[in-house]
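EI: anyone free to look at a 172-residue chain?
SC: sure, send it
EI:
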Amino acid sequence: WLRKKKNGEYLTLGEKCVVSFISGGLGSFFATPCDVAMIRMWADGTFPPHLRRGYTGFLNALGRIPKEEGLFTLWRGSMPTVARGAFGNMVMLSVFEQSKEMLAKYFGYNQKTVVMATLISGIFTTIASVPFDNAKVKLQKMQKGGIIYKGLLDCMKTTLKREGIRGLYSGT
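SC: here you go
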Protein backbone atom coordinates (compact mmCIF):
# COMPACT_ATOMS: atom_id res chain seq x y z
CA TRP A 1 0.00 0.00 0.00
CA LEU A 2 2.73 2.49 0.93
CA ARG A 3 4.87 1.58 -2.09
CA LYS A 4 1.86 2.18 -4.36
CA LYS A 5 1.52 5.66 -2.86
CA LYS A 6 5.21 6.28 -3.57
CA ASN A 7 4.99 5.06 -7.19
CA GLY A 8 6.87 1.85 -6.45
CA GLU A 9 9.82 3.56 -4.74
CA TYR A 10 11.33 2.16 -1.57
CA LEU A 11 10.31 3.72 1.71
CA THR A 12 12.87 5.98 3.33
CA LEU A 13 14.56 4.74 6.49
CA GLY A 14 12.42 7.17 8.53
CA GLU A 15 9.19 5.87 6.97
CA LYS A 16 10.25 2.28 7.64
CA CYS A 17 10.93 3.19 11.27
CA VAL A 18 7.55 4.87 11.77
CA VAL A 19 5.51 2.09 10.16
CA SER A 20 7.32 -0.72 11.97
CA PHE A 21 7.30 1.16 15.32
CA ILE A 22 3.51 1.63 15.19
CA SER A 23 2.76 -1.93 14.07
CA GLY A 24 5.06 -3.44 16.70
CA GLY A 25 3.57 -1.30 19.46
CA LEU A 26 -0.04 -2.06 18.54
CA GLY A 27 0.56 -5.79 18.18
CA SER A 28 2.32 -5.89 21.55
CA PHE A 29 -0.45 -3.98 23.31
CA PHE A 30 -3.12 -6.43 22.18
CA ALA A 31 -0.93 -9.43 23.04
CA THR A 32 -0.01 -8.21 26.55
CA PRO A 33 -2.70 -10.20 28.46
CA CYS A 34 -1.36 -13.46 27.00
CA ASP A 35 2.18 -12.41 27.85
CA VAL A 36 1.20 -11.56 31.44
CA ALA A 37 -0.47 -14.96 31.89
CA MET A 38 2.58 -16.73 30.46
CA ILE A 39 5.06 -14.79 32.64
CA ARG A 40 2.91 -15.37 35.73
CA MET A 41 2.79 -19.13 35.14
CA TRP A 42 6.55 -19.25 34.63
CA ALA A 43 7.27 -17.03 37.64
CA ASP A 44 4.98 -19.05 39.91
CA GLY A 45 7.54 -21.85 40.01
CA THR A 46 10.30 -19.47 41.09
CA PHE A 47 8.49 -18.35 44.26
CA PRO A 48 8.45 -20.14 47.61
CA PRO A 49 5.36 -22.40 47.96
CA HIS A 50 3.50 -20.01 50.27
CA LEU A 51 3.76 -17.17 47.69
CA ARG A 52 2.74 -19.19 44.63
CA ARG A 53 -0.50 -18.41 42.87
CA GLY A 54 -1.04 -22.01 41.79
CA TYR A 55 -2.20 -21.52 38.21
CA THR A 56 -3.20 -24.81 36.59
CA GLY A 57 -2.67 -23.63 33.03
CA PHE A 58 -2.77 -20.71 30.60
CA LEU A 59 -6.56 -20.32 30.51
CA ASN A 60 -6.74 -20.66 34.29
CA ALA A 61 -4.22 -17.81 34.68
CA LEU A 62 -5.96 -15.69 32.03
CA GLY A 63 -9.28 -16.13 33.85
CA ARG A 64 -8.07 -15.78 37.44
CA ILE A 65 -5.88 -12.70 37.02
CA PRO A 66 -8.76 -10.29 36.26
CA LYS A 67 -11.05 -11.94 38.84
CA GLU A 68 -8.51 -11.80 41.66
CA GLU A 69 -6.57 -8.64 40.80
CA GLY A 70 -8.76 -6.63 38.41
CA LEU A 71 -9.10 -6.53 34.63
CA PHE A 72 -6.33 -4.01 34.05
CA THR A 73 -3.81 -6.28 35.77
CA LEU A 74 -3.76 -8.15 32.44
CA TRP A 75 -1.97 -5.09 31.06
CA ARG A 76 0.56 -4.83 33.91
CA GLY A 77 3.89 -4.35 32.26
CA SER A 78 2.23 -3.20 29.04
CA MET A 79 4.48 -0.16 28.73
CA PRO A 80 7.68 -2.20 28.52
CA THR A 81 5.89 -4.78 26.38
CA VAL A 82 4.70 -2.10 23.97
CA ALA A 83 8.06 -0.31 24.08
CA ARG A 84 9.89 -3.58 23.42
CA GLY A 85 7.50 -4.45 20.60
CA ALA A 86 7.68 -1.00 19.05
CA PHE A 87 11.45 -0.52 19.32
CA GLY A 88 12.25 -4.17 18.60
CA ASN A 89 10.02 -4.23 15.54
CA MET A 90 11.32 -0.88 14.35
CA VAL A 91 14.94 -1.96 14.62
CA MET A 92 14.34 -5.44 13.24
CA LEU A 93 12.34 -4.43 10.16
CA SER A 94 13.99 -1.14 9.29
CA VAL A 95 17.56 -2.46 9.75
CA PHE A 96 16.69 -5.62 7.80
CA GLU A 97 15.17 -3.69 4.89
CA GLN A 98 17.90 -1.05 4.85
CA SER A 99 20.66 -3.67 5.06
CA LYS A 100 19.06 -5.73 2.32
CA GLU A 101 18.84 -2.71 0.01
CA MET A 102 22.44 -1.67 0.71
CA LEU A 103 23.85 -5.19 0.37
CA ALA A 104 21.90 -5.81 -2.85
CA LYS A 105 23.83 -2.95 -4.48
CA TYR A 106 27.08 -4.89 -3.95
CA PHE A 107 26.02 -8.54 -4.07
CA GLY A 108 22.74 -8.45 -5.99
CA TYR A 109 19.45 -9.50 -4.49
CA ASN A 110 19.77 -13.18 -3.59
CA GLN A 111 19.61 -15.60 -0.67
CA LYS A 112 23.08 -14.58 0.53
CA THR A 113 21.96 -10.94 0.75
CA VAL A 114 18.85 -11.87 2.73
CA VAL A 115 20.85 -14.03 5.17
CA MET A 116 23.42 -11.25 5.75
CA ALA A 117 20.67 -8.66 6.25
CA THR A 118 18.93 -11.01 8.69
CA LEU A 119 22.11 -11.45 10.73
CA ILE A 120 22.73 -7.71 10.87
CA SER A 121 19.12 -7.07 11.85
CA GLY A 122 19.20 -9.77 14.53
CA ILE A 123 22.25 -8.25 16.22
CA PHE A 124 20.75 -4.77 16.31
CA THR A 125 17.34 -6.08 17.42
CA THR A 126 18.85 -7.98 20.33
CA ILE A 127 20.83 -4.96 21.51
CA ALA A 128 17.72 -2.76 21.33
CA SER A 129 15.11 -5.09 22.79
CA VAL A 130 16.70 -7.10 25.61
CA PRO A 131 16.64 -4.21 28.15
CA PHE A 132 12.89 -3.87 27.52
CA ASP A 133 12.39 -7.63 27.88
CA ASN A 134 14.31 -7.56 31.14
CA ALA A 135 12.14 -4.74 32.55
CA LYS A 136 8.95 -6.31 31.22
CA VAL A 137 9.55 -9.59 33.00
CA LYS A 138 10.50 -7.85 36.25
CA LEU A 139 7.34 -5.73 36.15
CA GLN A 140 5.01 -8.59 35.23
CA LYS A 141 6.39 -10.95 37.83
CA MET A 142 6.44 -8.53 40.79
CA GLN A 143 4.22 -9.22 43.76
CA LYS A 144 3.71 -7.87 47.26
CA GLY A 145 6.71 -8.37 49.48
CA GLY A 146 9.26 -8.10 46.68
CA ILE A 147 10.76 -5.17 44.83
CA ILE A 148 7.98 -2.93 43.56
CA TYR A 149 8.77 -0.80 40.55
CA LYS A 150 6.73 2.29 39.65
CA GLY A 151 7.01 1.62 35.93
CA LEU A 152 9.33 1.01 33.01
CA LEU A 153 11.75 3.87 33.63
CA ASP A 154 11.90 3.20 37.38
CA CYS A 155 12.61 -0.47 36.72
CA MET A 156 15.38 0.30 34.23
CA LYS A 157 16.85 3.01 36.49
CA THR A 158 16.77 0.72 39.54
CA THR A 159 18.35 -2.10 37.54
CA LEU A 160 21.13 0.22 36.32
CA LYS A 161 21.74 1.47 39.88
CA ARG A 162 21.78 -2.02 41.46
CA GLU A 163 23.38 -4.08 38.68
CA GLY A 164 24.99 -1.68 36.21
CA ILE A 165 24.55 -1.79 32.41
CA ARG A 166 25.00 -5.56 32.39
CA GLY A 167 21.89 -5.84 34.53
CA LEU A 168 19.76 -4.65 31.60
CA TYR A 169 21.07 -7.57 29.56
CA SER A 170 21.01 -10.27 32.24
CA GLY A 171 18.47 -13.06 32.66
CA THR A 172 15.70 -12.26 35.08
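EI: The chain has a mean pLDDT of 88.
SC: 👍
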